[in-house]
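During the practical work, I selected for study one protein's amino acid sequence and its backbone structure tokens, as given directly below:
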Amino acid sequence: MDPQARKKALQMLSYGLYVLTARHGEDVVASTVSWVTQTSFQPPLIAVAIKEASQTYRVVREAGAFALNVLGEGQKALASAFFRHVPVEGNTVGGHPFTTGSTGAPLLTETPAYLECRVLEWVERGDHHLAIAEVVDAGVNFEAAPLDLRSTGWSYGG
């Protein structure tokens, strides 16, 4: 297989951008993720890939739950704010306000929507492990078209 062709073809897959948040005890994480898909209507299930060698992976494994905060058009700067570890101070993470959801995960108030999820199963293959999770709560803060990876000029994949 031509590695350049494989990389280019994989980068052509479409992805949205989300801030995944989770809390376990005093540990709070917020990370931008893109490898997400809905896998079932009934029950409502999603799959999200989380880098195994990350604090986010560890906290989500321990918490057994997380929130996906859906980013909207024009929120590229918000997406980039969560490329690295950010501090939690009061009800802000990285300076961005949140409320606490039913799973304990932070829900960013500046994003158009959120999904709260409980992990049902892990698929442990490769450098990112797949969390299969049931959507247990959801909310819409405001209407906006979702932010997608391609529109940012960034790429993650290949």
Observations:
- Residues 3-11 form the longest helix (9 residues).
- The radius of gyration is 15 Å.
